[in-house]
Amino acid sequence: MDEVGKIKQELERTKTELAILYEISNAMRTTLRLEEILYIILTGVTAHIGLGFNRALLFLVNEKENLIEGKMGIGPESGEEANLIWTRVEQEQMDMDDLISAYKAKGDIPDTRFNQQVRRVKIPVKDQSGGLLALGVLDGMPLLLTKETIQSYAHDPIIQLLKSDELVVAPLKAKDKVNGIILADNFITRKPITKDDIRMLIMLANQAGLAIENSQLYEKAVTRAHSDSLTELWNHGYFQYLLQSELEKAKVTKKPLTLIMIDIDNFKVYNDALGHQSGDKILKALATLIKNQSRKMDYVCRYGGEEFTVILPQTDKKESFLIAERLRSDIEKFPFLNEEMLPDNKLTVSIGISSYPEDCLTPADLVSLTDKALYTAKQKGKNNTCCCPAAA
Question: What domains can be seen in the chain, in order of their start residue?
C-alpha cells in the first residue's frame, strides 16, 4: 500500500473511532442515574458498534470503606449464548440507542450469574497486595495482561472469576483521581487485544470517569434533598414520587407491586413517659432495622410520625406477607431502649399490606387500602400483619 493509501486508511479508522466515542459520550449525557451510566459504559465497551469486546466488568472505589466494589458485568457466559445475542443484534440491526432503550424499558439489566458474581466482589485498597484491582486503582495506569504475564496473577480472585488468558485493565479517572476500574476481554472469540483497542478503551474510560463522578454527585444531592433528616430514609414527598414511578414500571413490565405500611404500637405511651428525644432514638433504631432487613430493590420510607412504608417492586401479596411477618417478628425480638415500660415489656409494630394489580390500580388506592389493612391489624390487638382483602 502506498503512503497516500495508508493515510486514507488511517483517516477512516480515526473517523470511525471518533464516531463511536461520540455516540457513547452522547448516550452517557442522557441520564444522571448511576446504574444507567454504568450500563451505557459497559454497552459501549462490548457492543459491536462500540469497542467490540466480548465481556466487560466495572468496579467503583468506595472511599468511605476503602474498598473497590463490583458494580456491573456484561457479557455472555458461553459461546452458544454469545452467538444467540450477536445474531439477534445483527438481525435487528440494533445500534447503541436500541440497546440502551431495551435496557430502560426493562428497568434493569438481566441479573445473570456473571453479573451477580461481579457484584459480590469487594477488595480492600490498602496496597498492591490487594491484587489486580488494587494495582489498577493505586497505579492509575492501564494494563494489558497477555498469556505470558497473566500467570503472575493466577491466584487473583478476578482472574479466577474470568478464566481469561488475556485481558485489559483501564482505570476510570475524574480530576486525576481514580474512581473505578474497567476490565475487558475476548474470552469467546479469542481475538487478540491490540494497541488500538487499548487506546480506545482508555479514551472511553476518561469520559466514563467524569460521567460517573457527575452521577455520584447528583445522587448525593438527590438523597440529601429527599431524605428524612432524623431516620435518613426517603421522606414522605419522595415516597409519593417513588410509588407513582414504580407503579408505572409495574404496568409496563406486567409485574406485581406491593406496599407495606408499618406503625409502632403504643408509641404515644413511650413518648409521653420518656419524652420525644427518647422517641426519636426509637425511630432511628427502627428505621435502621427495617432498612437492613429489606432487599436492595425495595424502597424504605418514613411516611410520617411513627409510620414507615416499604415499596416492594416485582413482589406479589403472598410473598410480601412473608417478608412483612419476618420483619414484624424481628422487630418484636429486637432489644429497643427502655422498651420494658411498654405493654408486654416490648416494642411491637402493626403492618398493613396491599398489592397492584390484585387489590387496586392507582397509587392513591394502594395507600388507602394499605392504611385500612393497617387499621385492621391494630383492631385485632396490635403486633399483627393484615392484608387488604382481595378485590372481588
Answer: 3-223 (3.30.450.40), 236-387 (3.30.70.270)
